[in-house]
Amino acid sequence: xxxxxxxxxxxxxxxxxxxxxxxxxxxxxxxxxxxxxxxxxxxxxxxxxxxxxxxxx
Length: 57
Hints:
Oligomer: single chain
Order of helices and strands: HH
Number of helices: 2
Helix content: 55-70%
Number of strands: 0
């Protein structure tokens, strides 16, 4: 029973912290262009110069 006195406020605090992070991201425009990232994966990579190093990072 003593652990609940600590765990319930901690859970409420973490929930409110997550909600605040979501609202902050919403106001910063993080969710504005959801289709852009999905379409960007379909685009080809830019062509490399022949003189560039052939090893991939």
